[in-house]
Amino acid sequence: MACNSGNCQSNCYQNEQVAQDGSIPAPTTCCSDDGANNQQQQGVCLKCKVSPPISSGGGGSGDEARFCGDCFRTNLFGKFRLAVTSHAMITPSDNVLVAFSGGVASRVALQFVHDMQQRAQRNYEASKDRSLPVFGVGVAFVDESTVCSISNDEVEEAIQEMKSTVLELAPPVKQFHVVPSVSLYSSGSSDEKDRLMKLIGAVDDVTGKDDFLMHLRMWAFQKVASENGYTKLVLGLCTSRIACHVIAATVKGQGYSLSADIQYVDARWQVPIVLPLRDCTSQELNILCRIDGLKTLQLVNDHPSGINGLISSFVHLLQEENSSRESTIVRTAGKLTPFHFNRVSEINDSSVPLATLRRQKRYNLKPQESISSESFCPICNSPVINSDLPSCDSLKPFKFSEFAASCCPSCQFQILPQDQSSMKEFYSLLPEGLVSRSKHKDNDNLDMLREQVQDCLLSNSDDETNSSKRNALSRLVFFLHGNGSFSSSPSTSCFARSDDYYMVQLPVMILLYIDPITDTSFN
User: Cellular component per GO (predicted)?
Assistant: First the structure.
């Protein structure tokens, strides 16, 4: 189409007239901006406009066909660094543990964390006062040869390759931890391997067994991180893996806890988990490993089974049809309201740069933007609604009933045995750490409630403070037994009842009405 302008220098109007006359049109330059850009950028990188793209032969697609190796690496590392700095994932005082499996995602995560550490080290050496510390980095690998069909020789060979990969990284030196799956048992008995194999074999559901192995792997990472003083656990979960998890969790009935698993930060664990590769796809990570020559290995069959395998294949087909499907799934799920633990605590460290503090305040969740949850599944650590948990009174009075009642519905359906005899055996084979979580849940809740009402408890000193607290309690009792509203000057005669009454009833009232019991509530 001609631009129909006399000032056009491309002769497009003249060429249209020639074409109408039937003569052979002369080569022209299209007035369209897109066409000009396509011709100008043909055979060169879209960003630097100098180097050829990675797949210059035209066989590639996406970023591989648009960017050169250096620009592609810069863009991918920029996504990683933006996620880290915006959500304060890594601070100078942190000691970071990278969960390493030898795969593509964990290899890129290790490389990017190492690059950040090197930059911090150079800044530390260049500063005069050297007041800015350099965060530490460790690497951990979970040895699952006990529960997987793989020979010891293959495991040892893979571990040696991982060690060499970590040692080849430039200083600072990074400690490499090999964590056997049986290390979850702290008893030190000789039958730990048999117990673990029987525990896995007790799960009949294929999908449940796959999920249970993943949960045990996470608990193993948490164990080594807490025992060695690490403050953050870096996982290599990318957009592709998270997109599969979004659909899988929805199918399994884990919609309530879905938003907790897909955020950048997950602080419900003893050692908070961070996902710096959340905005990177598996295709991008594979390209980076290829152009940088990063060594990867696949020790065990990483292809999921059951529901997880079907959904992985389904998402892969969607991605082939449209390269933005995975990102769309993750962005859509990201609109779910996160939980209060999907944020890092406010940083009060003077060594943290001011720009990091500003970004944390900008991207961190506000209390009104999150969901509060105080109960977690002892197996998968997913947040659960107390009303959804079955009452222990409705179960048989076996020792395992409290554990079964505290699990989320998904674990109850897919992992826990359905008959009581099998459930009793399953409970006896569990690692001590998982059992203790359900045992001490009630004690932890009571400690938390006591901490919340600590300011309202009467002490042996400070009569003026006690008088204020006693007045607050008086107003509470007057409200509970009165007309449903607080009086401006409640009568102290409400304390005239017997001591036995208030010894039994008043603590219950306090626990049921925690929020109103603050000195500021009655001003």
Answer: cytosol
